[in-house]
Amino acid sequence: MTTMLDASADFKSYICLICGWIYNEAEGAPNDGLAPGTRWADVPDDWLCPECHVTKVEFAMNEF
Predict the structure, then answer these.
(1) Number of domains in the chain
(2) For residue 55, what are the β-bridge partners?
(3) Which residues span the domain enclosing 32?
(4) Tell me, what CATH number does 31's domain have?
(5) Nearest CA-CA partner of 21 in 63, 60, 5, 64
(6) Rounded-to-integer distance, Cα 24 and Cα 44, Å
(7) Torsion sign across C-alpha atoms 6, 50, 32, 59
(8) pTM of the predicted protein model
(9) Are the beta carbons of 13 and 60 closer than 8 angstroms?
(10) Would you say residue 16 has pLDDT above 60?
(11) Is the torsion defined by CA of 9, 38, 59, 57 positive or negative?
């Protein structure tokens, strides 16, 4: 049986290497068109960091 906590543990976060803004898959970025639960692979390639406006190639998985 999977609990809600177990499901959220599968979500990852990604950090912008330019400005440090963090994208959390569980939270999404609703103000920027990404619903909660949107996986990084499903974020469009032309999406821009809401803080510094670089593309997702400037992000790295946050492993902290």
Answers:
(1) 1
(2) 48
(3) 4-62
(4) 2.20.28.10
(5) 60
(6) 15
(7) negative
(8) 0.82
(9) no
(10) yes
(11) positive
Distance CA(30)–CA(26), nearest Å, equals: 11
Strand partners, 61: 14
Q: 31: alpha, beta or left, given left = phi > 0 and alpha = psi -120 to 50?
A: alpha
Query: How far is it, in rounded angstroms, from Cα 38 to Cα 51?
Result: 19
pLDDT for the residue numbered 42: 97
23-33: pLDDT as tens digits? 999 999 999 99
User: Which residue type occupies 60?
Assistant: A
In the β-sheet with 22-24, what is the strand arrangement from edge to edge? 22-24, 13-16, 59-62
Residue recorded with tokens 């469009």: 44
Q: What is the pLDDT of residue 40?
A: 97
